Fold:
Amino acid sequence: MIAFCKDKQRRDLILQTPGINGLDYLEVLGPPGCGDQLALTFIKDVRGLALSPANISLTGDTVLQVHAVKPATKEEPLTIRVQLRGTGDFSPYTLTLVTSPTNTDPPAGVDSQLNTATFSFKAGCPSPLRDPRDHHNYGAPAEIGGGPYDRTPNIALPGTQPNAEFVNSAAPFKAIVGMAVVGWAEYSTLASAVAAWNRLPTNSAGTILLPNFECYAVDLTGPNAIQIPAQSVLLIASAALAKDGVPEWSEACVTLRGDIEVVAPPVTLDPDGVPLPTGRVRINGVWLSGQLILQGGEACVEVTDSTLIPGIALNTMGEAARPGTPSVMGIVLNTLGEAVYTETRSITGSGSAPPSLTGPGSAPEMTLCLNRVVSGPIAMPSTCSSRICNSIVDSGGPYSVAFAGADLASPGASLHIEESTVIGRVWAQAIRLASNTIFWAKLGQSDPWQAAVWANRVQVGCARFCWLPANSIAPRQYNCLPPDAASQAALEPRFVTLRFGHPGYCLLSGDVPMALWKGADSGSQIGVYYQIQETEAVTNMLIRSAEYLPANAERGVFLIPSRTLPEQASPFEYYGHGGEGGLPMGIGVSLI
Structure:
């Protein structure tokens, strides 16, 4: 970069005046954007001008120090070179020749108007704004699904107290992706960090940090899958990193685009023939635009404060790109140990085909735990178990499948669910416990399912303070709604919106039946927003506000929005099943 003198008349005057000199132009020497040397070219021979670092004043956004000044030579009689300690940024810089740091007058023999030059170190370099970062979060009534809120209560670093019994407890595996931080091993990709974890022995503890609000394309399937042997614990979480390397579990939520597969080896026995404790994978503070795939023997996969995007991803209209496609899948293996898939369409009529139970083989015995999670459908075989708390499981509509087996047409894992909302039909091997939960599910016309909520084993388990469709095949019920089929229409839940990404997503609207609004065991609302205690807040406001009112004044509490927001109907339903009013849906409907 070269900065020229613009005052030609002043330049010509100096050429004609003996004993006076001035800057003609300034040049930044070195690679573009990284120059650390300045070439000061004067109008006349400058070999008689003695300058030192004290005669150079340099101002800009970044403080730079002058290391040395090389005087003019016989080969370059007009040029003085200034060596800097480092380079500048994109801001404009001004170089001024001064008598001393405390005297801003020009040195003897230098013109008072041509003793300064303004320039840029980054001239010709691409602006850093060419790749702008848009840090935003979807609003929600509660701390759920991941975001900038504090996630500390749901996180414990593996290998620390009280879990310090690992073989590498003295130096737990600590990795970070794409950032250099003191005390953490840096890896360029998540796949390389996982590969390093997979090389550790059994009974290891490890943490992989994903910094800030980054977005990564991943493919952790097949040979790149996460291996979780017995007794091992791996945490994958987003975090903001302090300068001392201590992670802060807030102001961070990383998006992963691709599939993640967790593989557990066969059950390991101790010398007495007792199975060793299962390995655990914990995922926290992540948005996954893909599928979480579970395969192998026994292991526990815990997902907290995360979002497994319903429909895998959102299109440009904000709608599900692959509606009805499972967010969590349990892979079934054939007798050769190979994953078995079918080439038929998904049972929802769109999206990729799920695995099919097409022959004998092994099924995973995984345990899935979701806490404060937003997820799409869950497709796990009956050999698995699941525990869901304070979460949303959204299949896209009440007629679609939200929870079932690996083929979405057979019984799924055993289910334990509390304070959650399920949008879609449920078929579980057993419902061990359902508490304070809304099952918003419906059967279509000529539906092959026996019930919208269906437990294969009804002798075990209990459903308490839930909203279950009438005629559900469920274990014994206590204080559930509706009490009978005749009252179901009057007691159906109403939501502000079921559109993922909207601030009122799955929130009960203001015109919901009071029995549902106060139907939980604590007198609060049933469903995922049981945790915000909105019902109690409204009640307390009505009680306490009366004593502060002037005479003859009235008060009220108005929920905004108080009605279901208008929106278009879901573009798909379960193939061959009727929608509202028994209208037929599916391929060939126009021929009826």
User: Anything to note?
Assistant: Residues 534-545 form the longest helix (12 residues). The chain has two domains: 2-124, 152-491.
